[in-house]
Design a protein that fits this description.
15 helices; Rossmann fold; 4-stranded antiparallel sheet; Spermidine Synthase, Chain: A, domain 2; 7-stranded mixed sheet; elongated; alpha/beta
Length: about 500
């Protein structure tokens, strides 16, 4: 039974670690830094906890109290991290100090578990005159600990995060601590060390108290959280396997957010999509191909596809849209609000949707496209940064026809100039002809795009689009590195500009 407790403890501490890393990455953006800090704090208390455990005389009582303490601290930390982020949003350092304190408190309790339970098992074996040595006990404990921790590493990304999501996963681990404490009460010899009746009564009282607090806190904190991120009425909210999808409405304006980040406003989205497609509309009208093969990477809501379908009305064409999250595609195909905005474009017979990672798709695809348009989220982590890498653009180059055109959004070059020029320089490493342009989008500001081709076909202009670079946008290109899979430098460029403007 005690080895089974080792199994439960190993799952809980690893999920705690993954959870803290995930939620801090969502809030603070730099996933690599957050992972490193979380691991550092974890390892720090690995040796501190292992050392101070010798100060406790009654290990059985200590373990039981540690589980109850961890139950209390962990449950409150889930809400407290969100609460602190809301009220210290403009004072990042204060929030981060509190985050480190919460993390250290959790790890301080977690790393009492394994040394204490190893000592309990060793003493029990000696009482039973078992021939096992301390070396055997330590080997057994860590075998169970690491094997089940290995299982937990698969449990979190494949079950807990995509199916149960972060908040519910935290509550599930909270319940697991309750179960560990209860199970420990009824293990062998527990009555000799603690007053079971006394602790059971306290436990029932605390549990009832927590149930009432949970009902109030859950609704209150979630309401604060939603009001903090979304100032308008929420008309759609769903947590998919990959992200949190929220759609709001204010009068006639529809806004869509992914993980709290604005994706479009219905009032000005036409300007954004015109910039992605306007040039190619002129290009298509000036050419006379019998068939056009068009690839859209990620822009799942059907708004870009709507513009293309309208342009290609009298043409023979095929649009292939690549999107990893099937829940988002289903929303764009079935939601009445989105279907009105996108003119039901994703249900058009010329539009084919494939739910797959864009990098994986291009790596195995063997078709050639006349136009490829990429509109990926900001590269705040490695999985997104790869979609702006030299290797990815090389895949695009291989799939583009000899007179084809590739376009990608490239953010606000005034604020995030290093990010923009990193994209520009990386594309220039692959393509012989590239052009950058920008237009004012009220919801995003002065937004920039980069287009590339294998030969010079950029001969058109547009009144809404500006091709000039003011001095404020320029930068020393010798100091800018290209973005690669081995060195995803664009993440650092992206994080730095957010820190500079406290975003």
């Amino acid at each position: 039974m005690l080895y089974f407790l080792v199994f439960l403890c190993s799952i809980s501490w690893l999920v705690y670690q993954l959870f803290l890393w995930t939620i801090s990455s969502y809030l603070v953006w730099n996933s690599i830094l957050q992972f490193s800090i979380t691991i550092w704090l974890f390892l720090t208390w690995l040796w501190i906890g292992s050392y101070i455990v010798r100060l406790f005389k009654n290990n059985i009582k200590t373990f039981f109290i540690a589980e109850l303490s961890l139950w209390i601290v962990w449950w409150f930390s889930v809400f407290l991290i969100k609460f602190l982020y809301i009220y210290f949003f403009n004072t990042f350092l204060v929030f981060y100090i509190f985050y480190i304190i919460i993390t250290l408190t959790i790890w301080a309790i977690v790393w009492l578990e394994i040394p204490i339970i190893a000592d309990i098992i060793d003493k029990e074996k000696k009482r039973n005159k078992d021939n096992s040595t301390l070396k055997d006990v330590v080997a057994d404990v860590f075998t169970y600990d690491y094997v089940w921790a290995l299982i937990a590493t698969f449990l979190f990304p494949f079950i807990l995060l995509p199916w149960i999501w972060v908040g519910n996963s935290a509550i599930l681990m909270w319940l697991l601590n309750i179960f560990i404490a209860l199970l420990f009460i009824y293990t062998k010899n527990i009555k000799k060390h603690i007053n079971v009746k006394k602790y059971t009564l306290w436990f029932i009282f605390i549990l009832i108290f927590y149930v009432f607090i949970a009902i109030w806190l859950n609704s209150h904190i979630e309401n604060l959280w939603d009001k903090f991120f979304y100032k308008d009425t929420i008309i759609y909210h769903k947590k998919s396997h990959y992200q949190d999808i929220v759609m709001t409405k204010r009068w006639g304006d529809i806004r869509l957010y992914l993980d709290g980040n604005l994706q479009f406003m219905s009032l000005d989205e036409h300007r954004y999509h015109a910039c992605l497609w306007k040039h190619w509309k002129n290009y298509i009208q000036s050419t006379d191909k019998k068939y056009y093969n068009i690839l859209i990477l990620w822009w799942w809501d059907g708004l870009l596809a709507r513009n293309i379908v309208k342009t290609m009305k009298n043409k023979n064409y095929q649009i292939t849209l690549i999107e990893l999250d099937s829940a988002m595609i289903n929303l764009a195909k079935t939601n009445k609000v989105l279907k009105t905005l996108n003119k039901d474009s994703l249900n058009n017979k010329h539009v084919k949707v494939i739910n797959e990672d864009a990098f994986t798709y291009l790596a195995k695809d063997d078709k050639t496209y006349d136009i490829i348009i990429a509109d990926f989220p900001d590269p705040r982590n490695v999985s997104l940064a790869k979609l702006y890498s030299k290797e990815f653009y090389n895949l695009v180059y291989r799939r583009l026809s000899s007179d084809g055109i590739f376009t990608t959004q490239a953010w606000n070059a005034f604020f995030a100039n290093k990010s923009f020029w990193c994209i520009y320089k990386t594309l220039k490493w692959i393509f012989s002809k590239i052009i950058a342009y920008h237009a004012y989008i009220p919801s995003f500001g002065d937004w920039w795009y980069v287009s590339a081709s294998k030969k010079d076909i950029f001969t058109w202009t547009n009144k809404m689009i500006d091709y000039d670079f003011d001095e404020d946008y320029k930068i020393d290109m010798n100091k800018i590195k290209i973005n690669t899979l081995d060195n995803p430098i664009i993440i650092q460029y992206y994080i730095n500009w957010r820190k500079k403007f406290n975003l």
